[in-house]
Amino acid sequence: MSDRLDGEKSGTVAWRPPRWLRGPRPEKVPPLVGTAGAVVGLLNLAAGLFPRFRHSRLHALAEVLPGTVSALAAASSIVVGILLLMLAHGLKRRKRRAWVAAVALLPVGIAAQLVYRHSVVGAAFSLALLAFLVWHRRAFEALPDPRSRVKALLNFVALGGISFGLGLVIVNTHPHKIVGDPSVWERIKHVLWGLFGFEGPVRYVNNVDYTVGYSLGALGLLTVATTAYLAFRPEHPAARLTEEDEEKLRELLAKHGGRDSLGYFALRRDKGVVFSPTGKAAVCYRVISGVMLASGDPIGDVEAWPGAIERFMEEARAHSWTPAVTGCSETGGQVWTRETGMDALELGDEAIVDVADFTLTGRSMRNVRQMVKRIERNGYETRVRRVRDLEPEELARIQKAADAWRDTDTERGFSMALGRIDADKDGDAVIATAHLAPAEGEAPGPFGDLKAMQHYVPWGKDGISLELMRRDRSADPGMNELLIVASLQAAPGLKIKQVSLNFAVFRSSLERGEKLGAGPVIRIWRGMLIFLSRWYQIESLYKFNDKFQPRWEPRFVVFRNSRDIPRIGLAALQAEGYLELGLPRALRRKAPAEPQPCAHKDEPITADAVGTAA
């Protein structure tokens, strides 16, 4: 494979063949195709649920058909309507299976609308959508998403509830055809029995029993069939970092890991990876809610990045995922936007402290200096060591303490979190711990004299990046400052020259908004950020990081178009653990021991104590 395909021509950043040599662009489909599918589904649903309002030219033909045909048409219209509503999102994402199902269902829906409701308008809309799908059939080539048993369970609960609600509507749609005056409970029993295919206690006249019975049975069959499909469909493998991929990434990090402080976080076990054709660069990602989310810069040689980015975009197109990058550097953002045509937006700044320039002297460091001295006078001592230098028993105790001190139900972190403390594979990582001997006559705590810990991952050969900080709630305030200062002071002995601290979202906006002469727009935006800081660590992380006089490196988010920003933001919140969409905790499957995402710098930062444990 030619290295030039990766853009490794000497003296250039990237080489790419012209468009006419790269083959035709994939055919584009308007995003409104999903909306059109939903509208046609609603028309089919309405045609099956509600009786005819007037006679039409087709009425005479339909009346000579057997009553069972009309009842089957009503049931078919309802089922087709529900299925088209379920397929609308798949059509929008150009899923091949959604296209096949829609093309098969639309003729059935057209026939059902004409036979039962005599709806020429609804049939015309369905026919137009069918013609559009057939004409653009080559555009629907996206592969299916990974199989999920949870989706099957959610489908059974949600669709079962919808079917029950629609069943009540169907039972009560013909009030003048009901024999007698059945109670509400009898109508509910009729729906429940009908969903399982049995006759209920409610009776009708003029063959309405057929219509109601077939409709309820179809809804029940639809719920069972779609649930079975989701549960037993062929599985498409989910993105996971294999042992072979991990070894390749470690080789790239050994050569180029010093370029990006987020590079080592590519070794998270719940990330997938795509390599450039020559294997000299890679992009790590995770798929969340249909968003293919990469974090940080590509790994490897900068000149080989375009090849890895092209593979990333090909994978996104193949599955119709929304491509996005969060937390990339300015250089990374320039390469991403140039190679893909996407846009970039400044997301925030990363705080980086140069060890040679750090000092506790001076007026600007007075608060930190006083806090550290006060804690040291209270008897605390610190230890900063490589993970490989810790005894297994002590490392296990630190890990248990970190888990016990976590403040949230789920681990947080994605772009700046590793998710583990492993002496074998991550021996170069650094752990800083704070200890306090128990007072005379006082029993030691469950973790001995351990009161706080911080975990740093390697950043090239002479840097570390803060990954995790936790503390015992009974410890004195200021444990985070104490351990960061201890790590910076111990860094020369560990041959560390730079330390990456927390990531401050929208830091520049907060800084500009509080300056004299700031315009009304930036002041309003700063006010919104401060308001959101009540729930998310926006202003507090900025203020905390600023205590150590760091240099700020901007980080960017890369996106395809502006309408994708809300979806990307939602996926990023899910990835970082700030938003969880799924089943209630009691119904969730037990998570495996590996991989487990881990909190990165997720400890809540207070304005005074800065160190409430997470």
Automatic annotation (TrEMBL):
Signal peptide: none annotated. Residues 1-22, 592-614 are annotated as: Disordered. Keywords: Cell membrane, Membrane, Transmembrane, Transmembrane helix. InterPro entries: LPG_synthase_C, PG_lysyltransferase, tRNA-synt_2_TM. Residues 250-558 form the Phosphatidylglycerol lysyltransferase C-terminal domain. GO terms for biological process: phospholipid homeostasis. It comes from the Bacteria. Its main location: membrane. It is a multi-pass membrane protein. One of its GO terms (cellular component) is plasma membrane. It is found in: Cell membrane. Residues 27-181 form the Lysyl-tRNA synthetase N-terminal transmembrane region domain. PANTHER family: PHOSPHATIDYLGLYCEROL LYSYLTRANSFERASE. This is DUF2156 domain-containing protein.
